[in-house]
Specification:
Blueprint lengths: L1 H11 L5 H13 L17 E2 L5 E5 L7 H4 L7 H12 L20 E5 L12 H17 L5 E5 L1 H13 L16 E2 L7 E5 L4 H4 L6 H15 L12
Parallel strand pairs: 2-3, 2-4, 4-6
Antiparallel strand pairs: 1-3, 5-6
Helix pairs in contact: 1-5, 4-8, 5-6
């Protein structure tokens, strides 16, 4: 647990990406009218959850007026409302909502983090920013020794997860597995498996591209895979 706290301190102090540093701090200074009286977090967002988690949920990046405000990933925005309701329905969370970091939310067997730790302009981090952030997630996975499955929310997170598995010494099939809702890459030795899920953005949830039932199905599948006693190796590049 002390190692996870040390990682959190290092993540929060990161200033690797000048564009992201400038944007997250600008948003925190100007604030949205609805939150004008609040003090924004305005720093990189660490992961959080159960240190014994078997399932990691990997998002895209903090929302400018969500996690960049509250200091906890997916907390305080519509995407998080949708995600936490699903986590509660499927037994991963003790409550269906999360509005601020001290609201009593607890995760069971799940850890939530992001491919990029700072709020990006227009919710679009660059590939270089993704790669600069990847070592944080690699270190995180090394400390979360029980992880068996990564649920990637959206194509950007899926690509980051594949790169993460390769960076940690895992092999993936060629061509690399493509993202899709419900796409599945089985675990390799000493590496987590991977599940794809449409991102719970308003663009997806308001249009029915992602429904509560679809989210629940992926989360329940993640639980099923995490509980498997044996793993199937992935083909290595070659």
């Amino acid at each position: 647990m002390s190692d996870l706290r040390a990682l959190e301190r290092d993540v929060v102090g990161c200033r690797r990406c000048p564009r992201l540093v400038a944007w997250r701090e600008q948003v925190a200074s100007e604030r949205r009218a609805a939150f004008a009286t609040e003090t924004y977090w305005g720093r990189p967002i660490p992961g959080f959850g159960d240190p014994a988690a078997r399932v990691v949920i990997l998002g895209l990046a903090p929302a400018a007026h969500g996690a960049n405000r509250t200091g906890r990933i997916f907390t305080g925005d519509r995407s998080g409302d949708f995600l936490f309701a699903g986590l509660h329905r499927t037994g991963f969370a003790n409550q269906p909502t999360s509005v601020h970091a001290g609201d009593g939310l607890r995760l069971r067997d799940a850890w939530i983090t992001a491919a990029v730790r700072c709020a990006p302009p227009a919710n679009k981090p660059t590939p270089a920013e993704r790669d600069a952030c990847l070592p944080w997630a690699a270190r995180e996975l090394d400390l979360l020794a029980d992880v068996r499955v990564i649920v990637a929310l959206g194509a950007f997170a899926w690509d980051a997860a594949v790169r993460l598995i390769v960076a940690r010494g895992g092999g993936v099939a060629r061509p690399r597995p493509r993202f899709g809702h419900g796409a599945e890459v089985r675990p390799a030795p000493r590496q987590p498996g991977l599940l794809g899920c449409f991102h719970p953005s308003q663009q997806n949830t308001f249009t029915g591209v992602l429904t509560p039932a679809m989210l629940d199905a992926v989360l329940l599948r993640a639980r099923e895979l995490a509980g498997r006693g044996s793993a199937t190796a992935l083909p290595r590049p070659g």
